[in-house]
Amino acid sequence: MNAHGESTTASSLEQAVAWRMRLTESPELFRAGFSAWLDADPAHEQAWRAVQTPWMFLGEQSASPSVVRLRRAALVHAYNALRSNWLRAKLRRPPVRLAGAASVLIALVGGILWWQHRPLVYTTGPGEQRSVRLADGSRIVLDASSEVTVRYTADARTLALVRGQARFDVAHNPLRPFTVAADGRKVVATGTAFDVNLVGSELRVTLLKGHVVILPAGASVKPFVPVGEPGVNPRMVDVAVTGIPPNWQRIALDPGEQLVLAEHAPPHVTRVNLRRVTAWQRGQLVFRNEPLHQVLTSIDRYIPEPIVAGDPRTAQMRISGVYQEGDVDGFVGTITHYLPVQAHERADGTVILTYRAPRHLAAPASAPQIPAAGAASL
Length: 378
Prior knowledge:
Elements: H1 3-25, H2 27-40, H3 42-56, H4 65-88, H5 94-117, E1 120-123, E2 130-133, E3 139-142, E4 147-152, E5 157-163, E6 165-169, E7 178-182, E8 185-189, E9 193-199, E10 202-209, E11 212-216, E12 220-226, E13 237-242, E14 251-253, E15 257-261, E16 268-271, H6 274-277, E17 284-291, H7 292-299, E18 307-309, H8 312-316, E19 318-324, H9 328-338, E20 341-345, E21 351-355, E22 369-370
Parallel strand pairs: 5-7, 18-21, 19-22
Antiparallel strand pairs: 1-4, 2-3, 3-6, 4-5, 6-9, 7-8, 8-11, 9-10, 10-15, 11-14, 12-13, 15-16, 17-19, 20-21
Helix pairs in contact: 1-2, 1-3, 1-4, 1-5, 2-3, 3-5, 4-5
């Protein structure tokens, strides 16, 4: 490109940055002038795309005050730097000016891309719960000792449950799927509420309302809309998906259904009591004929030191009951009273449960119903 062309390109970039700033401040006031500038020269349109493309990458998150400040600061910096380059260019060759303008724009693109792809991380500690309102109006409630990462783009809402349990209430947007990855699976929704729970080697997905589909984590999902033709099951959704293994079938849930995915076992869908599933949001833990080792995995989220089954026989004992989160003494006292188990506390605070032979009766073959406050209502 000749010197005149380079000068024109750099000038157009400067002007595009200035117009972006004006339109951010007062779009109605500057809209007519911007349109006239855009039509005046094909180079203006090219320069505008160079500035506007990274600007739009922020999607809906651009409405948050912190992102607005970031974009404003980036444009002020870019404009000032470009003006400075223009003044210095009077004493140097035009290529220096153009290189300076390009470097500022690259920095602007890189900064906004970094902001877009930077995941937001939400965590809770033992016994802590947290409610988070996301940029699109969706809500996450994290149970104790849990972690969720969030990435939002213009056409996708991508989350991951790294550990623990969380409830997701999804703001409806059929053109922007909401996905939660957990344990090698992906839960896909547009507007619904569901609970995802990682318990040891199990993944439990419970649909509270709306509809979801469960896919392998490597599947690529494009925007989908519910199928609304007469005679079609409303829970089935039209999902544009690629990357699914030949032997995999997507799983759709109805409200009140729970999918359990465990190692070395086929997917299992059952109907569940939603009040029991969401009892953790009210500070209660509800178990129905579950092995003690799995119960202990859930309880460990709420206490600073773990409770451990000290032998295989104890680990496989089954129990049912309702417990208050964090009540270690109450839980251990109840377990040792109703099961042939004894407790020993180590110096580091860890509680070890081990089998003890019952005095008169063999250990119960099925889960004893252990009375606890609130059990009748659940």
